[in-house]
Each structure stands twice: as structure tokens, then as C-alpha cells.
Specification:
The chain is 14% helix and 40% strand. The chain has 308 residues and is mainly β. It folds into 2 domains: 95 residues, Immunoglobulin-like, CATH 2.60.40; 168 residues, Distorted Sandwich (Glucose Permease (Domain IIA)). Strand 17 and strand 18 form a beta hairpin.
Length: 308
């Protein structure tokens, strides 16, 4: 019971913060770095004290004549992008990443072809994922089939493995654009009908059938269609390895390949796929990892990202 109350309060706080994001959003979060590391010339600005499993953190690289850069950690490479003449990277932590301090490496690539690497510590903490029981009477048992779910996830990640070089989001950054109560958290381990465990890859928020579902940022539609679990689904590429997905819609208004602006209507809320009632589901992939979309959006509030 205590855990349920804590989640409810935390979710309500997140919604209050996200409701203000329309005005405060920028292409990158407007924040002061928590830590700075250097080798006497090159600087690494880190905008978090630690990163929870399934979360995203912002890192900035600064040096003269910098042509490119990347962050290497968790056996993965996180490319940088340029906003206002500065190089940034969104570093995503896999949900199953071991909890400990890692040695991350920032690779600086210069206009004359020279390169250098500067190391810095990156602490991974617990994602705090909860367990939920979900009962859906009369559910089509086929959508509780692990193979069907695995195939769907494989199809989504086949698409999301493509890294668009350009930044497709604009000066509006990322924002939810609605003021609703989230009802089911990211990362929850769900037991469906007492028989099947699965992972909740996004957040749900309360909405009625027929209400509009909107894009959290500009980008390009890379999938628009029906999936067994997610029902009517839209996946948007925002560039540089960032994707957002919108599930269970009753109808979809966009098509694959279409350019999307921030806040554009994608479809209408519904209860298609594996769903017990009408609601909106939003999820995010960053560099091949499911990440907490609400936590990501919170980085765009006016006082910047936090570690809590």
C-alpha cells in the first residue's frame, strides 16, 4: 500500500511539472551542469549526479575546433549533436544495467583529425521498478503469447536501430502538452491475468475514447499501423537515436514517412491491442534502450534535469 501511494504522489508531481513544459521547452534543457571534468583544455559538463536504470542523462562536450564527439559507456556509443554551437549527447541506461559506478569516456574529435579521450565517472542507481497485477477478463489469449510479444518488440527495435544523423526535433524541444494523471509507470513488471509476466515500456495517462493523441516533438513517422500488443501504433523518429511511440489508439491520422511538428495530432485515444480500457500510452526509445519518457520530459522544465 505504501508503494502505491508513493507512486501516485510521484506521478501527480510529474504531471504538474510536465504541464508547464509548453512555455519552458527548448531544443536542449536549460540547466547548469552538476559536475565538470577536464584535462586542462577539453571540458565535459554532466547534467546529472547519477542515472537510474532506464533513464537518460545529458552530457556536453566543449573545446575549441571540435568537429565531432561521442560518449562511450555500457559497451555502447552515444553520438553527440550540435545545438547553438555546443555538442551534447543523450546517454541512456539500459533497464537491466548493473547498479555501480562506471568509467565513461568522452571522445573529442577535432577539425584537423586529431582525437583525444577524457574519462569521467558515471553512477547507475536503481530504477525502482514496481510490480503490478493486471486482470483483463475475456482477453484474447494469443496476445499473452511471449513469442508474439517478442516478435513485436523485434520489429520495433529493427526500426529504432536506425540512427538518423540529423536532429529532427526543433526549438520546442520535447513536451507532453496535456495535463492528465499518469496511471501506470514505466518499468513496471506486470502480471497479466495471474499467468504472464511482461514489462511496461512506457507511461499510461487517463484519457477518454476519441480524445486526440499528440506528438511530444517534431520528427518523422517511421511506423503507423496495427500491432498485436500495442494496437494502433505510431512510432516517430526524432533524430540522433531518439524515438517516441504512441499505442492503443482507436484511429491513426498520420502515415509512414510523414514529417511531424511538435504537438501535431497523431490519432485518437482508444483501447486497441492488449488494453483493458481506453487510455493513452506513450513510450520512448533512446539509442536502442527503453527509457522513462516522463523522466526525459522532466529534463525540459526550467530548472533542468535532476537525479531524483
Amino acid at each position: 500500500m505504501r508503494r502505491s501511494v508513493f507512486v501516485h504522489v510521484s506521478v501527480s508531481l510529474i504531471l504538474c511539472l510536465l504541464a508547464a513544459l509548453r512555455i519552458q521547452a527548448e531544443a536542449v534543457p536549460d540547466a547548469e551542469p552538476i559536475s565538470t571534468y577536464d584535462d586542462g583544455a577539453a571540458l565535459i559538463d554532466v547534467f546529472f549526479s547519477d542515472l537510474k536504470q532506464g533513464r537518460v542523462g545529458l552530457v556536453r562536450l566543449i573545446d575549441a575546433n571540435l568537429a565531432d564527439g561521442q560518449i562511450l559507456v555500457f559497451g555502447a556509443t552515444y553520438p553527440t549533436f550540435v545545438i547553438d554551437d555546443a555538442r551534447y549527447a543523450f546517454v541512456s541506461v539500459p533497464m537491466e544495467q548493473a547498479i555501480r559506478t562506471y568509467e565513461a569516456q568522452a571522445q573529442f574529435i577535432y577539425e584537423d583529425g586529431d582525437e583525444k579521450t577524457v574519462s569521467f565517472p558515471l553512477e547507475v542507481s536503481s530504477g525502482g521498478f514496481i510490480q503490478q497485477s493486471v486482470d483483463i477478463p475475456g482477453i484474447d489469449e494469443s496476445i499473452l503469447n511471449p513469442e508474439i510479444e517478442a516478435n513485436e518488440l523485434g520489429s520495433i527495435f529493427d526500426i529504432a536501430s536506425q540512427i538518423t544523423e540529423d536532429v529532427l526535433w526543433d526549438e520546442n524541444g520535447f513536451n507532453l502538452g496535456v495535463n492528465r494523471e499518469f496511471t501506470s509507470p514505466f518499468g513496471a513488471v506486470r502480471l497479466f491475468n495471474g499467468t504472464y509476466n511482461t514489462l511496461h515500456t512506457g507511461w499510461d495517462y487517463q484519457a477518454s475514447t476519441g480524445e486526440s493523441t499528440h506528438s511530444i516533438a517534431s520528427g518523422r513517422v517511421v511506423f503507423a499501423g496495427h500491432l498485436p500488443i500495442r494496437g494502433n501504433y505510431v512510432l516517430i523518429d526524432h533524430g540522433r537515436g531518439i524515438y517516441s511511440g504512441y499505442a492503443h489508439m482507436s484511429v491513426v491520422f498520420v502515415t509512414q514517412g510523414q514529417q511531424i511538428y511538435a504537438g501535431q495530432r497523431l490519432g485518437r485515444v482508444g483501447s486497441t491491442g492488449r488494453s483493458s480500457s481506453a487510455h493513452a500510452h506513450i513510450e520512448m526509445i533512446a539509442h536502442g534502450n527503453w527509457v522513462d519518457v516522463a523522466d526525459f520530459l522532466m529534463m525540459y522544465r526550467d530548472n533542468g534535469p535532476t537525479s531524483d
